[in-house]
Input
Amino acid sequence: MRTFTEKSLWDVYARCYDAIAVFQPYQEMIADVVAEVPVQPSPRRVLDAGCGTGNLTQALLTMRPDVGEVVAADRSVAMLRRSRRKNPTATHLQVDLDGELGELSGSFDVIVCTNVLYTLADPHHSLTMLRRRLTPDGRLVVTTPIARVDTKKIVRQHIELRGAASLLRLVLPLIVVALINARIVRTTAYHFLTRDQVCELLGTDAVRLTYSDQVWLAVC
Ligand SMILES: C[S@@+](CC[C@H](N)C(=O)[O-])C[C@H]1O[C@@H](n2cnc3c(N)ncnc32)[C@H](O)[C@@H]1O
Output
């Protein structure tokens, strides 16, 4: 069961979350996920489940203008507010992915869900609910952090690719991000999964690493 503090954590995180969007490994994860959205036929509807501040939604709208509708869903009002500002053409909905998804109408050709699963009360339940919203040939693309995530590797790879100067103006928000992440990693309610656990949960072997090898990417 999530406490009020856990739920409101995401509203606080929304204020500084986009500091991580600057990281090259994060951008690579977003590009990897967009590349898994089928091209033929063009998806009619795509759901970004747990859209956060809308970085993946933005990439979908920009890189895949052929997609009919992008629906961006999140439980956090503060996250949704930021995503709406970035993505005025997307449909935004407040949805609790721990629930039965009654807030969503219709079905989706593709559901993308990046770095959300580990935060959910019961990932198996949420995946079952999401799968019910897929069209018969629909595709689910999920990313979720590895069991012993090492954020230092992400920072190191970013600095190798883009230089330390690219982070200077972000020092303050990055300190807040680091504090929030340290809290998340310590809290046993979150689910950091091994590859075998991801394969079993999603019922697929199509699982690989992305985001400086700190995040699983599963396609099913
Ligand atoms: C780490 S962020 C990932 C955001 C975005 N998908 C990305 O990759 O940048 C996790 C997101 O999951 C959302 N979230 C957590 N629990 C949720 C729930 N029960 N229902 C809907 N969204 C939830 C949070 O509000 C937050 O926006």
In short: The helical segments are 4-14, 24-35, 55-63, 77-86, 123-132, 151-162, 171-186, 195-202. The chain has one domain: 4-219. Residues 10, 50-52, 55-56, 74-76, 79, 95-98, 114-116, 119-120 surround S-adenosylmethionine (CB under 6 Å). The longest strand covers residues 134-145.
